[in-house]
Amino acid sequence: xxxxxxxxxxxxxxxxxxxxYTTAFGLGTQLRLRASEAPTTGxxxxxxxxVVSQPADVDALVDAAVEAGAATLKxxxxxxxxxxxxxxxxxxxxxxxxxxxxxxxxxATRQIDEIVLLLGIEDVKAGKQFYxxxxxxVAKSFGSKYVEFATGSGPVKLALYKRRGLAKVAGxxxxxxxxxxxxxxxxxxxxxxxxxxxxEAAASAPTP
Length: 208
Fold this sequence. Notes:
alpha/beta; eight-stranded mixed β-sheet; five-stranded mixed β-sheet
């Protein structure tokens, strides 16, 4: 089963970004940073989701991110599916922080149960087929709207969503041009998908 070992965010200031992510989320090797001045404007076509066990954990991570310099795109609140909020890091990356639970079961922690990379693409069916052809197995599929892949024991999960739908979930305009400022490191090999998202072979990637 193909896995994703990490995602690399291309940022203008890696030192500042590392300080933010260490303070806000405490993420380790599953998140890497790389200097880049590649032109980019507006929505970059992806979000990263931090899945936690209860609303108190959502609030703890959202508060930590905002205190570290993130902007609030959607305040944490209850919804049909659970509880969550959306913030934008100083480097421009959009983070969803969510729990499927609507009730707390214990004291707040900052433990992250799962990291999910959601790629906003134009044609979900075509994207699904592209990734199946590259060795990824489908875990869940909802027609032309959403696909989730089985990425085994890897620390990062992968899902595809319609670009406009993902932008709406994130609370931003779907408009955007230029670089995604994202590289996905896994064992599926090195390639670029039809929507311009770049992958690299994790085994050959430089250690930060």
